[in-house]
Amino acid sequence: MSILENIQNTVVPKIDFKKGKHVSYSQLSLWLSCPHKWKLMYIDKLKQPPNIHLAFGSAMHETLQEYLDLMYNKSIKAADEFPIHEDFQQRFLKMYNDYKKQIGSNFSTPKEIAEFVNDGLNIIDFFIERRQMHFTKKGTRLLGIEMPILTPPHKDHPNIMLYGKLDLVFYDEDLKKVSIWDIKTSTRGWGKWDKEDKIKMAQMVLYKKYFAEQYNIPVEEIDCKYFIVKRKIPKNPKYPASASRIQYYVPSSGKTTINRVTQDLHAFIEDCFKDDMYQSKEYTKTPSDKSCRWCPFNDKPELCDKKATS
To answer: What DSSP letter does each residue of 140-163 carry, written as one string?
Structure first.
């Protein structure tokens, strides 16, 4: 069968959080940065407090996905008639207010909220004006939005399922290849540090490998990239790329990288699960400027003393 037939004929089982355990890239990234932090969040159920960046990113994801769904699956006219600016503002403010209710107080200021709204509208204007540069290649089909992955990644733990959703999945009819895109929001775009962050890059590598397995597609026929939208651009940019609110990054996802990330995922499952249940034990602490800077438990010594353990 062709790639399209394989995808169309694949029925991904629905996730049932009451049965077995489910792991995700988010869990893996937490464990790789600090197993103790993973334990606090997933065993002790201490949640990370919401923030305005999370509300902004979620709203921007959903608005762009809605627009692209209309453009590819209905018509450009339908996409143009979509009130994209209003949609983003409504989603963003609703998410902010939902998070506000969760914690019982504001976590931002009216000035900052207005700044984020304005940044989002600037991104949308830039996106619309340059739509033809990024999304109108003839022969490209949008196969899905939030396409699911649900598969057991470790043969010795068949009841532990890797769960994920892919933001955008395209198919190039000329090249006969699938392209997986992950939408990221960023303040000023990705620099060298982001691109060299192996934990951050692992997300698309995992998606590529297990999407291929889930939908019975040769992994060599899948490309992946990060589609990054920037809130801020320099007033007097030195280079044209600096003035763009859209940035692409294609991570390394060859055989060597896939093997390394797969080994990391297996090590995570082996460290944290026994008989398909979370292991109750002391988990390694790996304090560092990098891992502790944005940790929600950074100022809670009763939860983490920041002393390294092995």
So the answer is: EEEEEEEEEEEE---TT-TTEEEE
Take residue 239 and report the two structure tokens written for it. Answer: 């280079």
Q: Which two tokens stand for residue 217?
A: 């597609």
Across the chain, where does the E strand assignment appear?
21-23, 140-151, 160-172, 177-186, 222-230, 246-249, 273-274, 277-278
C-alpha neighbours within 13 Å on the C-beta side of residue 165: 9
Give the DSSP letter of residue 197: -
Please report, as a single letter, which amino acid is at residue 257: T
With helix as H, strand as E and coil as C, how does 39-93 read? HHHHCCCCCCCCCHHHHHHHHHHHHHHHHHHHHHHCCHHHHHHCCHHHHHHHHHH
Q: What's the CA gap between 76 and 68, in Å, rounded?
A: 9
Find how far residue 136's CA is from the centre of its chain. 24
Q: Which helix (H) or strand (E) holds 259?
A: helix 255-272
Contact 181, 170 (CB under 8 A): yes
Residue with tokens 């902010």: 96
Dihedral (C-alpha) 197, 246, 224, 139: value to the nearest 10 degrees?
-170
Q: Which helix (H) or strand (E) holds 198?
A: helix 198-214
Characterise 24 by phi-psi region: left (phi > 0), alpha (psi -120 to 50), beta (else).
beta
User: What whole-number distance in Å separates Cα of residue 304 and Cα of residue 182?
Assistant: 32
Mean pLDDT by 10 residues, the chain (310 residues): 85 79 95 96 91 96 97 94 98 96 91 98 96 84 95 94 96 94 97 95 97 95 97 89 94 96 98 92 91 87 87
Q: What is the largest CA-CA distance in the chain?
A: 58
127, 144 contact by CB (below 8 A): no
Question: What's the token pair of residue 96?
Answer: 């902010």
CA distance 143 to 148: 12
